[in-house]
Design brief:
By secondary structure, the chain is α+β, with helices and mostly antiparallel strands. Helices cover about 20% and strands about 40% of the residues. It has an 18-stranded mixed β-sheet that branches. Strands 20-21-19-22 form a four-stranded antiparallel β-sheet. Strand 9, helix 3 and strand 10 form a beta-alpha-beta unit.
Length: about 300
């Protein structure tokens, strides 16, 4: 094969640099004394990050910043860890914005105080705080839906901005829920302090009375945000990968790489030599299990691509 043109070589170098970003983000350590960064623990693609007007696919280990916007596609999921250890699960076709994300260490033990404002434009989410995290950290988190805001100080809740209605369900702890004014209704803040209480605000209609969610409904809601086993999930410690035909030309490999990334799949590209011949690898890595890798391979194959292989 002849030499690559300068423009193609530049494209290849940019592709290689972008695909190493995940490993750099995972390996990078925060400055001593700073709270840990908000990060992506797991993702079922397609999913995108929008930052400063630029859009890129989400990958495990990605570090999040204030003003970032996260978006998931059909059947996608994201698992995030906030600076003080709380978790956020995001369901399919959802959009989450980090309007504010400030963390600082407190006291001799170095506990973390988090002050954050999150906006859920659409979709389902779950916010959870472990017992250990509760004891070691403080948080003031406001989650804003279209017209409803939930103030969190350390708890477990599920919510959804579905267009026709907004839902907030308390799973554990205590939250204060408020709503923008609705004609003819008192929309004063309401405190939820009993497990499985839920608040529903239909669009342009009065808020429904506080109720208790049935177990069957709770299971259905939880499934909307959980990353299911063997569903194509990727994680920081995932060891499986999906690879496309390495015998393709540079132009075809680059086109596939760019197409996958535009679709919300964190594809990686790198040239190698095999038996003295230059080949080009397009892969998706960090898949959590063989089942996850095969599920992703089958999905990409059905989407009109050549069926990729699965390996560890």
């Amino acid at each position: 094969m002849g030499r690559l043109s300068a423009s193609k070589l530049c494209l290849a170098m940019l592709a290689i640099a972008s695909t190493t970003a995940a490993s750099v983000a995972v390996a990078a350590s925060p400055v001593y004394g700073e709270p840990p960064a908000a990060t992506v623990d797991g993702v079922v693609m397609p999913a995108w990050l929008e930052r400063s007007g630029k859009r890129q696919p989400v990958y495990p280990g990605m570090v999040l910043q204030e003003r970032d916007r996260i978006e998931t596609g059909v059947n996608a999921r994201i698992l995030l860890t906030l600076p003080e250890g709380s978790k956020i699960k995001l369901g399919e076709s959802a959009q989450l914005g980090f309007d504010a994300l400030v963390a600082k260490r407190e006291g001799e033990q170095g506990n973390v105080f988090l002050k954050s404002a999150l906006s859920v434009v659409t979709g389902a989410f779950r916010f959870t705080t472990s017992v250990v995290t509760k004891s070691r950290s403080r948080r003031e988190v406001d989650i804003r839906l279209s017209t409803v805001t939930a103030g969190i100080r350390g708890t477990d809740l599920w919510g959804k901005q579905g267009g026709a209605k907004e839902i907030v369900c308390l799973l554990e702890g205590k939250i204060e829920v408020s709503r923008d004014p609705v004609a003819g209704q008192n929309t004063a803040p309401v405190v939820l302090d009993q497990p499985l209480q839920f608040y529903i605000a239909p669009k342009d209609q009065p808020t429904l009375p506080i109720g208790r969610v049935p177990d069957a409904q709770l299971e259905q809601w939880a499934a909307e945000t959980d990353i299911a086993r063997d569903a194509g999930g990727a994680s920081v410690d995932g060891r499986w990968k999906v690879s496309f035909d390495a015998q393709t030309t540079f132009a075809d490999a680059m086109a596939l790489y760019e197409d996958l990334r535009n679709q919300g799949y964190a594809a990686q590209f790198r040239p190698e030599k095999k038996a003295g011949k230059r080949i080009y690898l397009v892969q998706l890595t960090n898949l959590s299990s063989e089942g996850d890798a095969r599920a992703l391979a089958n999905k990409l194959g059905r989407d009109g691509n050549a069926m990729p292989s699965v390996s560890r």
